[in-house]
Specification:
The complex is a heterodimer of chains A (216) and B (249). Helices cover 46% and strands 0% of the residues of chain A. Chain A is mainly α and 216 residues long. Chain A has a domain at 72-208: Cytochrome Bc1 Complex, Chain D, domain 2, CATH 1.10.760.10. Chain B is mainly α. Chain B folds into 3 domains: 8-36; 55-80 and 119-246, no CATH class; 82-115, no CATH class. The chains are: A mainly alpha (216), B mainly alpha (249). Chain A binds chain B through residues 7, 10, 14, 17-18, 20-21, 25, 33-36, 38, 40-42, 44, 50, 52, 102, 106, 109-111, 114-115, 125-126, 129, 131-135, 163-165, 169-170, and chain B through 13, 17, 20-21, 23-24, 27-28, 31, 62-65, 67-68, 71, 78, 80-81, 83, 85-86, 88-90, 92-96, 112-113, 115, 118, 123-125, 182, 186, 189.
Chain lengths: 216, 249
Amino acid sequence: MRQSRASRWLLRALKLSLGLLVLVTAAGCHTDMWIQPKTVPLEESTFYADKSSARPLVPGTVARGHLEEDTPFFTGRDDNGQLVTAIPVKFNSDKEFKEFLLRGQERFNIYCTPCHGRLGDGQGMISKRGLALRRPPANYHTDRLRNMPIGHFYDVMTKGYGVMFSYASRVEPQDRWAIAAYIRALQLSQHADSADYTAAQRASRQSTGSLGTETQ
Amino acid sequence: MAQLFKPYANVIARTSIVIGGMLPVIVGLAAAAYSRSPYNTKVEVPLNQPIPFSHQHHAYELGIDCRYCHTSVEKSGYAGLPPTETCMSCHSQIWTNSPLLEPVRKSYEDNTPIQWNKVNTLPSFVNFNHSIHIARGINCNQCHGPVNDMQITFKGHPFMMQWCLQCHRAPEKYLYKDPDSHSLREQVFNVYWKLQEKGVSGMTPREQHLVKGEEQEEDGAKDVAEGKALVKQYGVKVQQLADCSVCHY
């Protein structure tokens, strides 16, 4: 008798713990906190017809801080529509300018080298694959491009050029100027002759085979 | 009346009590094991995508920088996926007839986004931010596995809370400085340039683990000392980094 009461009690306890287990497990099935109604970038929207949660700007909208009044800085052209010949960015020290150039080098290596190559000679990996290209990427070391006002390079990045796409959505204006400056540096470096070096540099080149002032 | 319960019934009763008592525990453990198993977390299981995009091909063989496509990774919380235009900047020129790229061309013509299936996800109640991790020089592969080897993208780690915490509790084990790079941020991306230029054998042991997607081995005391120095230099607040409010708010 005693035993069966104990076993009944045990059975009840067992049922209870099983029930609890089911409850606890089911509680874990709630997904309302896992998948909240907020939208995260790139998420599909169930609300808009085109299913895009990121909404295009209403035409004419000016985002805060994006009133682009400084025409030369944002378009590479002065008020008369002529390409600017100097970088419309102010530098307070040589160090700042050097950092600007290094930034340009970094951005150039990310966004331009696949096609234009590390030297800007048009020999990027795309050209080297030997595939049929509609137009080969430009080589920057031609007289025409060496004599182009610097605004042209900014303009090409902003609007695209021929078959080349615009990089405006991926490279910010400040960085576009940095790239333009770096392209100028590349043009100088690839068009240098011995007259551009000081006597000391020439001597060091003869002894070590390098100039000892790498850009990297 | 014959005896209903044979003496061995006692044994059955006792064992079933023990088993019954343990059952919830066993089920619990099994459920936990299941939820952590690759079967559930889908770790290293390539996900079907509308286009068989290969990171191995683009990021390693062609050497395209991650930022060419994941533009915002170093300055915002989200790495972002490339818009169709980014693919077309090259594929309007090369492989213009490839049938594999048909969905890309269609998306470009119709102005409808390609719908990639998201490989890595966190629950909505967890906040994550890429830019701070990149600024501290933590490589993409540390969290995503060997992206440079992936034909079809897969999840390198299940982002369990415990996994995030093992680093947040002891960041000095994971922080390092590559002497060849200007900054911690830059070293993240230089790893892939180096891999392309020098191959695996030309890299430091730590970088080799990263590009092969191996777990980092138990660190030598030297590395941890370096990590500690970096924690100090960058003012990483180790005491607070594992606070709930860092990730849940």
